[in-house]
């Protein structure tokens, strides 16, 4: 079966269907029938609309959800700045070097919010234009009666270590390594550990629009990530209108908090197509060559955030490299040497990656690399030598492995934390990868004679 065998068993039920208009009730009859805003909602609930796109956005991209809750989310104190959260601020250093990081640490005694570090990004959430990449690591659940939301963009979360138990306004998600989830802009949620297992992973935040499935073109109507495999929570609620909750807001790279005397997880029913969801990367239907040459990695796109200004160009693609068969004849099977107008941030969830040695100091699980706009890269010397001389029999690569890429249209800047404070940047990455590439040029004798005569 094309599903991941997870260590942690599933604990929730879900709806399915990417961007489907869904409806769900924790109590039968809580959802108004035939209208969104009746004079009195069932059971004394309040109606609240969450718009993920402009009211007037075209139907294909319009996303909104009506929630029916015990207390409206507007009921909270003024937000106060949390001054200790500089790790989330937008301070990008743009440099052309190839960069690679050793596995990132999981600091002790931190929760989801304290354990979020922006490592790179570009653009400005105030203009809803750009991306940011984060590393998260935590050893404890969020404090009791706290929740978080990100006004800056959608977060695509890629767990590497430990499962995330996420309670959102729309219901609960268990997200384990080899699964991903997307939490849209503005949705309140909290992250708890499962059995105190530490968590670590990567986040792609997109300031523009929302993620979509890539167009399939000549591939046809199935393959890559299929719409039916995306899982969406069912409504679940807490009835608590008397204790103090703290709501954290990430707003333009700054952290704020406000108090309220009710839980944000009080949605009894909802309907719409603006909601969090998860996806098992083990279900990805990988396409590749069955003849020759190495296809572009766009063939491995799970989700894309497209640019309206440049059709066919993504603000950010989320791309994976699952276990797959390589059968190309007379072919250098790893990626070739290349320079890309797009910027490539890669991470490894587990295992090793075809183009890079996974040994100590190499491209390791929980580590990452960044090959920026037009920064040259490709296989390291040992991988080139091996791939140039191996027998081209069918071989299954990436077994037990999952690498991924955040590929962006933007030039990507690296934060001070990413460059220095995290202390994981490999100083010798470029030299160790490509410094040992040999001159293998063997011109025919006639060509040599011509050169000598010039
Ligand atoms: Fe590349």
Summarize the structure.
This is homogentisate 1,2-dioxygenase. The chain has 454 residues and is mostly beta strands.
Task: Give a written overview of the molecule.
The protein is mainly beta and 454 residues long. The protein has helices spanning 381-389, 416-421, 429-434, 445-453, and strands at residues 14-16, 22-25, 46-51, 64-69, 80-82, 99-101, 116-124, 129-138, 146-150, 154-161, 164-168, 171-175, 179-183, 189-192, 199-206, 231-233, 245-251, 254-260, 267-272, 277-280, 301-306, 314-321, 324-326, 343-350, 368-371, 395-397, 402-408, 413-414. The protein folds into 2 domains: 14-281, Jelly Rolls (Sandwich); 287-434, Jelly Rolls. It contains 4 helices and 28 strands. Strands 20-13-10-15-8-7-28 form a 7-stranded antiparallel β-sheet. Strands 6-25-24-27-22-21 form a 6-stranded antiparallel β-sheet, with no helix packed on it. A 4-stranded antiparallel β-sheet has the order 2-19-4-3, with no helix packed on it. The radius of gyration is 24 Å and the shape is elongated. The mean pLDDT is 94. The structure holds fe (ii) ion.
As a percent range, the share of helical residues equals: under 10%
Question: What kind of sheet is the major sheet?
Answer: 7 strands, antiparallel
Uncertain segments are none
Structural class determined from secondary elements: mainly beta
Q: How many domain units?
A: 2
Question: So, CATH architecture of the largest domain?
Answer: Sandwich
Strand content: 25-35%
CATH topology of the largest domain: Jelly Rolls
Distance from N terminus to C terminus (CA atoms, Å) equals 64 Å
Instruction: Return Rg in Å.
Output: 24 Å
Total DSSP helices? 4
Mean pLDDT level: 94
CATH class of the largest domain: Mainly Beta
Query: Which of globular, elongated, flat, extended, rod-shaped describes the shape?
Result: elongated
- The neighbouring-strand order within the major sheet is 20-13-10-15-8-7-28
